[in-house]
Automatic annotation (TrEMBL), chain A:
Listed GO biological process terms: transmembrane transport
Coiled-coil region list: none
Subcellular location(s) of the protein: Cell membrane
Domain ABC transmembrane type-1: 69-283
Similarity field: Belongs to the binding-protein-dependent transport system permease family.
Topological category with respect to the lipid bilayer: Multi-pass membrane protein
Name listed for the protein in its UniProt record: Putative aldouronate transport system permease protein
CDD domains listed in its UniProt record: TM_PBP2 (cd06261)
TrEMBL record, chain B:
Transmembrane segments: 12-33, 75-100, 112-131, 143-166, 187-212, 264-281
Keyword terms, alphabetized: Cell membrane, Membrane, Sugar transport, Transmembrane, Transmembrane helix, Transport
Membrane topology: Multi-pass membrane protein
Main location: membrane
Organism from which the protein derives: Gracilibacillus ureilyticus
Protein name: Multiple sugar transport system permease protein
Annotated CDD domains: TM_PBP2
UniProt-listed Pfam families: BPD_transp_1
GO biological process, one term: transmembrane transport
Classification via PANTHER family: ABC TRANSPORTER PERMEASE PROTEIN MG189-RELATED-RELATED, POLYGALACTURONAN_RHAMNOGALACTURONAN TRANSPORT SYSTEM PERMEASE PROTEIN YTCP
Domain of life: Bacteria
One GO CC term on file: plasma membrane
Length: 296, 296
């Protein structure tokens, strides 16, 4: 084949993209040295004094950061579980629906929240769950006292998890539905001849047919254990719920950019990045081992 | 299909449709409520009298919104950001995906470059180093900070989707073109790109939605309100809570003090571009996602 000399064209094609990524992804990575310095904004990264692991030692003595790590993992794990199960159940129900037009309309509607930002949905949710909002009106009809939903630290993590599942379940059904269409129709026919009803077909044909996809998604979600969702929480929280709702990313934002504790915020952010990187790499490795999946 | 059409099966259908319709309704109602709120009178909104339908129907909040020049400035900034960001994404993605879709046999440097790319996706230096880097580049208050920082963080995923799509294209096409003496640029632009509309539409949709929805970089890289993109504007003026709110009463009073009908109008207008874009790209993104991510 006449592909000799193509390589230099390939490199040429890659140059603009790599320049972009080097300047805006790789160069900022070097800023992590701030975590090991007593950072002085006047002298910058090169002039500041090196202090080793001081900031990290300090970090682990703060109750604040320990609480933030706990909140992050708690919220993230609940989200992972909910975001695996709810879309699966919804996809199975959609799959049972035989009216194609109706099926497609429902799909279009449930994809919608995925495409809206947490700024918008945060505004909408705060209105709906407001002290005088429709949810409290509804509760009032049943004679219940109004609840200050987003001001209650005990409710906050569950509102966050619930609203995240609500936002994403529709979009997350896409992969499951693709797997469901991949099941050989002959299997259903054979099961029908054997006298299986719908429930039996679900159990013996449908579920085994999407097992690989479900396992794959579960393994890949391991990489999200430290991602509790900055955008969402940033737009829903307030000081009343910091005790249960403050997560690593929101804490880093406030510590670094509002209180100007650059070293501490960088150190916490770096710890998150490193652990997150290890978890994602592990999840890719496991996904490859168990389901032969490769990201590229 | 041999599925039975017994009475119990039909009953199951009715139950199924009811549940699915109710779930789909929960995706629409919150947005509908926001629209109703924006069309109600201030007093009705403040008294919590609005439920499903506007109370004292009027367009006052939209008239008031027309007076808010910053809203339109921010709207325009967001439009520019989407055009630049999605445009750049549309050019760079195929340019990088094509060489990287080659095997090591055809393109020696491929694996090293691919792993570098994956690394930039999985690891980052955190918020503070990023902030200091952009400040160092002198890009504060520049729209390019929004376009380039956000773009660099989302483009790798888009490239991977496109690589997987390219790899699923029949090899014989490229071989035939090579026999005819076509070069790499010709093959990419005249062969691959025209055949890859589903995946390019998908990654463009992702890029458009991302740039429209992203608010954090507007908040940290723009020091003055006049440079805020729309989501940042809404985040700051509508959604965010004064960090000094420490008691439940203060939190309750805050929502009473705010102009809820005007806020709802702003939120609703900000939703419209997304509502207009995603349903039309639906057939592409389902196709693009499943072909790009699920491999047999």
């Amino acid at each position: 084949m006449k592909t000799k000399g193509f390589a230099k064209h390939y490199y040429l094609m890659l140059v603009p993209g790599f320049v972009w990524l080097i300047l805006f992804s790789i160069v900022p990575m070097f800023g992590i040295v701030i975590a090991f310095q007593s950072y002085n904004p006047g002298q910058g990264v090169f002039g500041s004094e090196f202090v080793g692991l001081e900031t990290f030692k300090y970090m682990f003595t703060l109750n604040d950061t320990m609480n933030v790590f706990y909140n992050t993992i708690f919220i993230a794990i609940m989200k992972i579980i909910g975001n695996l199960i709810v879309p699966l159940v919804f996809a199975l129900m959609l799959n049972e629906l035989r009216y194609i037009g109706l099926k497609r309309s429902i799909q279009t509607i449930v994809y919608l929240p995925h495409f809206l930002s947490w700024v918008i949905l945060g505004g909408v949710l705060l209105d709906i769950f407001a002290y005088q909002g429709p949810i409290n009106q509804l509760l009032g009809m049943f004679g219940m006292e109004p609840v200050l939903f987003f001001g209650r630290a005990d409710l906050f993590p569950f509102l966050v998890v619930g609203s995240d599942i609500w936002k994403e379940f529709g979009f997350n059904t896409i992969i499951y539905l693709a797997a469901l269409t991949g099941i050989n129709p002959a299997l259903y026919e054979a099961a029908g001849i054997d006298g299986a009803n719908r429930l039996k077909m679900l159990w013996h044909v449908t579920l085994p047919g999407i097992r690989t996809t479900a396992v794959l998604l579960a393994v890949l979600s391991l990489g999200n254990v430290l991602n509790a969702g900055f955008d969402q929480i940033f737009n829903l929280y307030n000081p009343l719920v910091y005790s249960t709702g403050d997560i690593i990313d929101t804490w880093v934002y406030r510590a670094g950019l509002l209180n100007l504790q650059y070293e501490l915020a960088t150190a916490v952010g770096l710890l998150k990045s490193v652990v997150g990187f290890i978890l994602i790499s592990l999840s890719y490795y496991l996904a490859y081992k168990f389901t032969n999946y490769r990201i590229f | 299909m041999l599925r039975s059409k017994s009475l119990s099966s039909r009953m199951a259908d009715i139950v199924l449709i009811t549940i699915l319709a109710l779930v789909a309704l929960t995706c629409i109602l919150p947005l509908w409520y926001t629209l109703s709120l924006s069309l109600s009178s201030k007093t009705a909104a403040a008294a919590g009298a609005v439920a499903l339908w506007p109370v004292d129907f009027n367009f006052d909040s939209y008239k008031q919104l027309l007076q808010d020049s910053q809203f339109f400035k921010s709207f325009w900034i967001s439009i520019q950001r989407v055009v630049l960001g999605a445009g750049l994404n549309f050019i760079i993605v195929p340019l990088m995906a094509y060489p990287l879709s080659k095997t090591v046999k055809d393109f020696k440097g491929r694996n090293v470059l691919m792993w570098t790319l994956i690394f930039t996706m999985l690891f980052n230096g955190g918020l503070i180093p990023l902030y200091l880097t952009i400040k160092g580049y002198g890009l504060m208050n520049s729209i390019w900070a929004l376009v380039l920082v956000g773009g660099a963080q989302t483009i790798v995923f888009n490239i991977i989707l496109t690589i997987n799509f390219f790899r699923n294209l029949p090899k014989s096409l490229e071989e035939a073109a090579l026999v005819d003496g076509a070069g790499p640029w010709y093959i990419l632009f005249k062969l691959y790109i025209p055949l890859s509309i589903p995946v390019l539409a998908t990654v463009s949709l992702f890029s458009i939605v991302y740039h429209w929805n992203e608010f954090l970089y507007g908040l940290i890289f723009m020091t003055r309100e006049e440079f805020y993109p729309l989501q940042t504007y809404i985040q700051q003026l509508v959604v965010s809570v004064d960090p000094s709110t420490m008691t439940e009463d203060q939190y309750k009073r805050m929502s009473e003090l705010s102009n809820r009908t005007l806020d709802a109008a702003k939120i609703f207008i900000a939703m419209i571009p997304v509502l207009l874009v995603y349903p039309f790209l639906q057939k592409y993104f389902i196709h693009g996602i499943t072909l790009g991510s699920v491999k047999e």
